[in-house]
Amino acid sequence: MELNQEAFSECCLVMEDSFDNVYKQCRFTEKSVGPLEIKVVRPGTFDSLMDFFISQGASIGQYKSPRCIKSGKALEVLEKSVVATFFSTGGCSFKN
Question: In what residue span(s) does the GH3 C-terminal domain sit (predicted)?
Fold first, then answer.
């Protein structure tokens, strides 16, 4: 799988620029939030994540991919499938 570094870097900038001023103040002024990070995972990763949650008792008919993962084991499912990581460079617009 070939990934376009430039495209993902631009994606990071566009996403970060779309966040509100509270995020931008925390990120650029207070430095309490780190750079935006995009992780690309192998095909089939979210099927594996679903399998994990079903094995933990989730209903297959009601399953939706979670927005936030609190389970360390579920996070491991995702982390072991990461094929690339991209960070924002902090070049978005912010007026204090």
Answer: 8-72
